[in-house]
Amino acid sequence: MQTAELDRSLISPSTPARVRALAAVPIASPAIPKAPDKKRIAFLYLGRRGGIARLAYELAVAATRHHQIDPLFVVSDSNELFGLMQTLPGIARSVKTFESSVGALTQTYRIPSLVQRLNAAFDDHRTETIAVLASHVWSPLIAPFLRTTGRRYVVVVHDADPHPGDVTGLAHGWLLREAAQADLVIALSRAVAAGLSTSRRVPSDRIVTLFHPLLTYTEKRSGAVWDGERPLRLLFFGRMMAYKGLGIFTKAIELLRAQGLLVEATVAGDGQMNGQREKLEALGATVINRWLLDRELSQLLQAHDAVVLTHAEASQSGCAAAALGAGLPVITTPVGGIMEQIAHEANGLVADRVDAAAIADQIKRMVNNPTLYRELAQGVLRQRHGREARDFLDNMLDAISWTN
Which domain holds residue 23? Predict the structure, then answer.
């Protein structure tokens, strides 16, 4: 997407493009555009940490600067970025949920008071639209009580189907019950929209496809850094889940080493590595097998030249959004919504297949061609336009207006 306009190819055919209205003025007065009424939108995210917490914060920053939005952000008091949100001008509130997965079941007694506090916050804000940034395990229970006020209810859906090997997938069908109740569902990729439509869990005429906004854990690079005079520094990061294909990444590094190509590799993130740690360390890779704080991820993105994604399947990728937000090209497998984020030879390289040899081939192209690397890094910067948090909010406003 090259502009902030709503991409008609990504939404249902009945969705109109945005129209900016100018008010009529007296003939004797200068023709001054009328300031648009601000839309009172409350953004709700009850999760505790991770990429969606970062997304909520970056949307909050953009919303405070958006002339068409009077925002409210309501998050869990366990949200790791709530302190950061509190630095913004009076738009963040917290509510009590739970602090562990066990609490999801043992602390359901909090739900009535949670509903009460949410509705009180929305009443005080005079909320017109509630936008849920990601469904929470309690969301299907509280949604009916938030909808009784007549406010529009919008749900952002990140996954149409559960990811293989992800234990949270056990609750996936339950979470989609909130989306089924929504006035509007926003999918972050065409792959997710198609999956929701095919499954018929959400009516197709309520689905709008936008995009995953870039995440700026660190300032974007102004230009290419790597010039071929040292080994290319590759980063694989995120939760260590089976569908992320860590074994493919490890094998790709092995193949490159066997061909005498020098690369430096870092693998960072929480989760089971299933024997890959020992192999990676034997290859000289740096392994950080724990949860990463925002500042740590920022430092890792600054210290590397490219990000490698070896997913076996994907809805879209927050890791890709973070890499592009930092100005780093991405080398990826050709799966799902990631191919909507990474354009081959424009802002990254897309392998021919989902296997180690195909990934190694694309890494080899980058290692052997610093000029290609520079072009890709410059392409990342060029393609930021229309993909940032502010652009996402513009598109969300278009979609909400369509449901009026």
Answer: 8-213+388-403
Burial class of residue 110 in the structure, from the number of CB atoms within 10 Å of its CB (0-12 exposed, 13-18 middle, 19+ buried): middle
Strand partners for 344: 348
φ/ψ of 209, rounded to 5, equals -100, 125
Token pair belonging to 192: 């997710």
User: d(Cα 316, Cα 51) in Å, to the nearest integer?
Assistant: 12
Q: How far apart are CA 351 and CA 382, in angstroms?
A: 22
Distance, in Å, from the CA atom of 234 to the CA atom of 236, rounded to the nearest integer, reads 7
Residues 392 and 378 in one domain: no
What are the C-alpha distances in Å from 217 to residues 55, 123, 212, 310?
10, 33, 15, 21
How far CA 225 is from CA of 172, 305, 341, 370, 374, in Å, comes to 41, 7, 22, 10, 8
Residues 260 and 151 in one domain: no
Alpha-carbon gap, residue 315 to 190, rounded angstroms:
9
Beta strands of 30-166 (E only): which ranges?
39-45, 69-76, 92-95, 129-132, 152-157
Are 19 and 167 within one domain? Answer: yes
pTM for this model (two decimals): 0.84
Question: How many other CB atoms are found less than 10 A from the CB of residue 282?
Answer: 10
The enclosing domain of 322 has a CATH number of: 3.40.50.2000
User: pLDDT tens digits for 105-147?
Assistant: 666 777 889 899 999 999 999 999 999 999 888 888 888 898 8
Work out the pLDDT band at 35, boundaries 50, 70, 90: very low
Dihedral sign from CA coordinates of 248, 157, 160, 209: negative
